[in-house]
């Protein structure tokens, strides 16, 4: 288990103390501070072990030396940070990656694991299956894995769910005529299918859809979950793009205050100059993946060829992970930027923090290196 020392990593950890959860960060300490007195929080904790339920979880882009710990060639991992002092994260903490050699033994040592250890390790493994810590997908994935967790851990409102259902309805209207042909009211079928697609439950009422797509068993279940992810990400991006445009416009205006070390200043200015092009490259990659989905859905609904969409669903789980990682990075950048620089406030930081932010954004946007 790694121990954080007084360096850039500790400064970043201290910044998390004031940071709400994002698609890259799940700050269980902040959630406890906000909701800890609520009955549901106590009845349905994220982790039953109290030590684990006071951690910070990150989707972390692995560096070269860290990929050796994992041994599976993956570009990202789920990182658990256990602070030395929960109220003062800047003092540092210990960390471990889910799936690294001996990670369960390390967690048992730190958390004094008891009868609840198996359940909590299962939650961590389920989180590690996801490309990001996006609240909607995290909630639905944990539900389908059988974990009943309080709603306060997932920052998605009923109003957002309603808006998303409206978006999905518009997306899949053409599918209804194919999957539910001759089965009654179209509008009613649309509402029913949207509700079921956005639910973690397996429901026999989706059987016409399964037959249309000619899928069976786990391939069908995983394909539908990944399709749900694609639909959700399309909805998220309709709100995310304007926020990302603000980052692109404001990043070149970021200034530093206070003492200026020449080498750090050069690191900052060069990194700041690269941010715009790297964010744009990430956006193009996201749109390219979504175009694959759009073409497959068009093949199903316009060309009436279910095999095209079936092939997409078979490939969708792996594509969903890659797409989620990319969107998770840009969502985190947009969210953290506005958190750190509220609208109308000066775009100015001390040099050390400015370098930290630029380097963190760049690390997330970097292409994973070959193992």
What can you tell me about this protein's structure?
The chain is of the alpha+beta class. It has helices at residues 8-16, 28-35, 39-43, 64-70, 103-111, 117-128, 135-144, 158-179, 186-197, 207-213, 217-250, 262-301, 306-340, 351-365; strands spanning 2-3, 25-27, 56-61, 76-83, 93-97, 255-257, 348-350. The chain has a five-stranded antiparallel sheet, with helices on both faces. The chain has a two-stranded parallel sheet with strand order 6-7. α8 crosses α9, α11 packs parallel to α13 and α12 (262-301) packs antiparallel against α13 (306-340). It is globular, with a radius of gyration of 22 Å. It starts with a strand and ends in a 6-residue tail after the last helix. The model is unreliable at 3-11 (pLDDT under 50).
Compile the SSE list and pairings:
Layout: E1 2-3, H1 8-16, E2 25-27, H2 28-35, H3 39-43, E3 56-61, H4 64-70, E4 76-83, E5 93-97, H5 103-111, H6 117-128, H7 135-144, H8 158-179, H9 186-197, H10 207-213, H11 217-250, E6 255-257, H12 262-301, H13 306-340, E7 348-350, H14 351-365
Parallel strand pairs: 6-7
Antiparallel strand pairs: 1-5, 2-3, 3-4, 4-5
Helix pairs in contact: 8-9, 11-12, 11-13, 12-13, 12-14
């Amino acid at each position: 288990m790694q121990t954080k020392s007084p360096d850039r990593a500790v400064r970043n950890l201290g910044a998390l103390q004031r940071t709400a959860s994002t698609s890259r960060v799940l700050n269980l300490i902040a959630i406890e501070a906000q909701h800890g007195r609520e009955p549901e929080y106590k009845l349905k904790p994220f982790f039953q072990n109290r030590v684990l339920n006071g951690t910070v979880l990150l989707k972390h882009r692995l560096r070269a030396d860290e990929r050796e710990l994992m041994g599976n060639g993956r570009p990202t991992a789920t990182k658990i940070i256990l602070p030395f002092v929960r109220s003062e994260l800047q003092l540092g903490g210990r960390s471990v990656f889910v799936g690294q050699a001996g990670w369960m033994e390390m967690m048992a040592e730190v958390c004094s694991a008891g009868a609840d250890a198996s359940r909590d390790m299962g939650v961590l493994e389920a989180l590690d299956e996801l490309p990001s810590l996006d609240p909607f997908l995290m909630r639905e994935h944990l539900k389908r894995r059988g974990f009943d967790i309080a709603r306060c851990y997932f920052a998605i409102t009923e109003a957002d769910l309603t808006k998303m259902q409206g978006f999905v309805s518009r997306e899949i209207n053409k599918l209804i005529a194919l999957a539910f042909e001759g089965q009654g009211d179209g509008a009613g079928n649309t509402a029913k299918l949207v509700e079921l697609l956005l639910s973690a439950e397996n429901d026999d009422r989706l059987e016409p859809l399964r037959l249309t797509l000619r899928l069976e068993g786990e391939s069908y279940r995983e394909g539908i979950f990944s399709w749900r992810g694609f639909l959700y990400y399309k909805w998220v991006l309709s709100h995310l793009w304007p926020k990302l445009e603000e980052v692109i416009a404001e990043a070149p205006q970021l200034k530093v205050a206070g003492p200026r070390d020449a080498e750090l200043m050069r690191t900052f200015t060069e990194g700041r100059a690269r941010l715009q092009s790297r964010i744009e490259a990430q956006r193009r990659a996201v749109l390219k993946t979504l175009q694959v989905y759009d073409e497959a859905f068009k093949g199903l609904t316009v060309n009436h060829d279910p095999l095209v969409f079936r092939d997409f669903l078979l490939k969708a789980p792996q594509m969903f992970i890659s797409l989620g990682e990319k969107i998770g990075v840009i969502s985190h950048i947009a969210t953290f930027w506005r958190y750190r620089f509220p609208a109308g406030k000066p775009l100015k930081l001390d040099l050390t923090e400015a370098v930290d932010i630029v380097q963190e954004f760049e690390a997330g946007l970097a292409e994973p290196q070959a193992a």
